[in-house]
From TrEMBL:
The keyword Cytoplasm is annotated on this UniProt entry: no
InterPro entries: 26kDa_periplasmic_antigen, SIMPL/DUF541
Top-level division of the source organism's lineage: Bacteria
Keyword rRNA processing included in the entry's annotation: no
Protein name: Putative periplasmic/secreted protein
PANTHER family reported in the protein's UniProt record: PERIPLASMIC IMMUNOGENIC PROTEIN (PTHR34387:SF1), SLR1258 PROTEIN (PTHR34387)
Length: 233
């Protein structure tokens, strides 16, 4: 009985070993990883202006009320301008102390951000608001619609570049063709950085300010195709 059992175990072990030896190993040789990019520059089509007002005094409550009213007035005026969106930004009230650590004065700052694709309308509005809030920062961006349209044009270029690069590199390694093992497509954009504006004092209420100079830049849009191919003889 023991001899039969031993023979059975031995036979199973031999069969298992033979099967394992016969099983094909995964072929990882001749695999090439690579990527290709298509890049273009697109004029920015959206501007965001950060307007701010500051105030100081002995009563923080009065400062807060005055700045809140000013921010509300600016937002309401901006919303009456066609093609312009407005929202509140930062709002801060803080004390300044003297050398003895006592509060000498309270300061406050309120911000409003206006955004528009109509640069002329945003420029004119910023000039009209100069007696209430002044432009502190100008930021140009690319809208989602413009970015998507640019990416759609770049995908064909990136894919063709990936194919050409794969075939050229495959032949350099002595192979004749390839098959794609896996591939990924990703998009990205790089907007120009914000432009700080020179600090200016508030204009008198009767002052008819000229439009604020606004000139957009260009955003870089990129489509990247990356993956791995199996080179073939």
């Amino acid at each position: 009985m023991k001899s039969v059992l031993a023979a059975t175990i031995l036979g199973t072990a031999i069969m298992t070993t033979a099967f394992a030896q016969a099983a094909p190993e995964a072929n990882h040789s001749g695999v090439l990883s690579l990527d290709a990019q298509a890049v273009t520059e697109v004029p920015t089509d959206t501007v965001t202006l950060t307007l701010s007002a500051e105030q100081e005094g002995a009563d923080p409550g009065a400062i807060s009320t005055a700045l809140s009213r000013k921010a509300d007035d600016v937002i309401n005026q901006a919303k009456r301008t066609s093609g312009v969106q407005a929202e509140t930004g930062g709002f801060n009230i803080y004390p300044n102390t003297d050398r003895n650590g006592k509060i000498s004065v309270w300061r406050g700052r309120a911000e409003v951000r206006i955004t528009s694709k109509d640069f002329a309308a945003a420029s004119k509005l910023a000039g009209q608001l100069a007696n209430q809030m002044q432009v502190q920062n100008v930021n140009f961006t690319l809208s989602r619609e413009a970015r998507t349209a640019a990416e759609a044009k770049l995908i064909d270029q990136a894919v063709n570049s990936f194919r050409d690069k794969a075939l050229t590199t495959t032949k350099l390694f002595g192979y004749t063709s390839y098959t794609i093992r896996d591939v990924h497509v990703s998009e990205g954009s790089n907007n120009p950085g914000p432009r700080p504006m020179m600090r200016m004092a508030a204009a008198p209420a009767s002052f008819d300010s000229a439009p604020v100079p606004i000139e957009g830049g260009k955003a870089q849009v990129t489509v990247t195709v990356s993956g791995a191919v199996q080179m073939l003889k």
